[in-house]
Amino acid sequence: MPAKITVRKAAPEDLEELLRIQGQSMPQAAEWSAGALLEGLEGCLAAQQNDRLVGFLLYRELGSTEWEILNLAVDQQSRRQGVASSLIEKFLGEAHGDVYLEVRESNLAARALYACWGFSEEGLRRAYYHRPVENAVVMKRANKNIPPANEA
Q1: pTM for this entry
Q2: Of 56, 50, 101, 52, nearest in space to 74 by CA
């Protein structure tokens, strides 16, 4: 049985491990420079298993009721053990509103994972990704529980 997965906010000391995991996930995951990752740590969740960083989810708030998942990557040895789902679950528990993301058109496993979490395919961005050039499928998870503006 796999060890328990703990999800927490990423910290600057996680940067080297975040880059390592991102590198293992190329070209499926988005590629961020060390500087961009460091700047985005406020919107980054890290997954740990046995005191080892095994995945991360980078996100940003687009507005009071809109969010975007920018990157989701899991260590090769820890895939298919619930790490990505743990990260998504934690993120969705904190993000109140609609959530958007782009995923490589060929990444059928990720598309299926997101569909299990209520994301629907909304459109296509042609030649969105580079190395290699590929279309991106735009996905959205509508949050029906957004409070009206006068209750926020």
Answers
A1: 0.85
A2: 56
